[in-house]
Amino acid sequence: MNIETNTHTSQDQCELCGKPCADEIIAFDDHAFCCAGCKSVYQLLSYEGNELLMPDSTAKSRRFDYLDLAEVRSKLLIFESDTFARTSFNVPAIHCSSCVYLIEQLPQFYSDVLQCKVNFSKKEVEILFQKKLPLSQLVQLLAAIGYEPAINLGTTESYQSKRKSAIGIKIAVAGFCFGNIMLLSLPEYLDHNFLLESKFKETFSYINLLLSLPVIFYSATDYFRAAIGGLGKKVFTIDVPIVLGILTLFGRSLFEVSTLTGSGYFDSLAGLVFFLLIGKWYQQKTYNALSFERDYKSYFPMACTRVKDGSSEQIHIKDLHPGDLIQIHSQELIPVDGILESKDALLDYSFVTGESEAINKSAQEQVFAGGRNIGQQVMIRVAKTVDMSYLTGLWNNEAFRKGSSDFQNLTDKISRHFTLIILTIAVAAGSYWWLVSPEKVWGVVTAVMIVACPCALALALPFTYGHALRIFGRHGLYLKNAEVVELLAKVSTFVFDKTGTLTYQKAQKVVFKGKLNSLEEEIIASVTAQSSHPLSRMICESLDVDSMHHVSNYKELTSKGVEAKVLKQHVKIGSAQWLNLTEDGSESTRVFVQFSGKLLGYFEIQQSYREGLNKLLISLKDKFHLMLLSGDQAKEEKRLAPYFKHLHFNLKPIDKLHHIKRCQSDGETVAMIGDGLNDAGALKTSDIGIALSDDVHQFSPACDAILASDSFTKLKSFARFAKGSTTIVILAFIFSFLYNIVGLSFAVTGHLSPLVSAILMPISSVSVVGFAVLGIAFLEKKLLHI
To answer: pTM, whole model, 2 decimals?
Structure first.
């Protein structure tokens, strides 16, 4: 077999998962595996040459041929270039962490599949693949390993509604059976004097047995399927003890009814499944509420320039409609799919594909959301309304992640061993009661396996931070994901850019020193209009021109300036240092203008510092280290020195990165506040990159948060709120542990019935959620209503 392997080639490491092999190594095909599960998965994914082992018979493969039709493919793809394509599928078979692992490992075994990302709560998988791979073959690949997508050419809403209705029907069936079993069991509960005839007892027992069958073979099927799937991959999920508890109750009840030694525990069995499904439904509702993408349009501050009737206006991207004409400046992100109206464009799709190679587009070609314009200003006709989920997916691209949550790592470790610990406790308790009081064994074992549930523990982290994300957004700080809350709580150093951060992005006054005729003003306006840099925008807005001219060979050089060709003039607009000029000691910001090597003069820009800046810096200085990193000259060093521990001027972008890395090497957790585009490198390198947003909302996946300018003075309060949120997570963890300890102590001593355990299970989740909501609401009232 000629098999492509992953990066782990050591004889002491598993070929599939990379973990160290035990003393007893399982060998197959000249490779070592740590367990039979990994060996099986490897066999499943093994392929000859470039052909994956798929069903090669015709009937199966022909089912997917329609996916290669142009009109169908266009509906299913969310991105397509000359080389790559990206799509997203609903995959109903995803049910546990092993499924996630298996799907996300596909690129290791199939070269045309570049990336797979699973959204577990939505049962969705997003795939980046080589364009040459037919879509039918991609779907066939997923189907071959047991994860056939639910293809829906319209919308995912119908699939989601089917999931909701399925669990609703299962709850209804379990509830109906539970109610009737309880009704038929009531005479026996009340029959203290043994007045009920044995024939009635037997009849009621048999009816209860029949009523329990739909509960076992329909309502509880998800738990059986998940447990069997997990065990098949050598993974002990929380569904394993639940299924053992259900089988224990059913087996014991069946034995008692068939031997006429009792009426069984059918009421406990039906009640257990009913309340477990209620808990599952509630947890699904909770995770849907936690979906940051669903509500992103309400607090995702991304705007763009729409051109209408010859004039431009800033609008929120959620208000764009097909047919709108939008203007994308240099370095800005394309927010929607559309048709290029300009002559040509140079786009960087590295946020989408991970490849940094620029793509040239010509007029009337389709462009996709997520591309960054790295050439001159372009016009795009909107083809689709904005997809917030797609944009937030870009924002959470793996390339911009900065490590995982410490609390999440703790939760994962506990969950990994939780089931085995509970099974051990159940066996120990059962063994004890078998010797002391055998009739209590089944009830105790079942209660132990049901009451000890990691649901409360699993909900503590996402719900607390998820609710905190909403509170932050409500007050003007828009965080990428929950991990940023935890990082913000650890910040020890705040690093600030100066221009457009400490100062307003709109100038108080722009004056040109020199002489310009109307044509020269139009040329300068045409060039600066291409750029999204604050200084370029200030200059462009200060010029009152009647018309614009075609710009070619446009380039924007970070921390230097812009250059282009307009009406045969080679135009350079930027810093004195870039143009090899000497400045005097003026405190105003100056931007010089050069036409074909001839200096025409300079724009003198007087900026003012943000209102409340002094108070903010003084309050931050007491608790944090403050640093200023600026590309400007050190004209205002004396004015800013009292607030900052370190000030550095005349810095290139690479210099800012070095200063931040130096702080991190000293053990500091660094938050960088700058503008979203020109400080992209520093924002990405820092532990938290915060892009400050004024009237024009810029968005860069390199940042971890977007701060509305009118909330700038709340920065210290935001840091305190993040620390308070972390404290609530710790308290929620403690609550979850105490619940499990107390519940287990009652269960192992025989004081807790399986039915009460099933009721307590969702109640624990409700308690944690309620605690998180109340705690975060208290923090908001105390810290953010200022």
So the answer is: 0.61
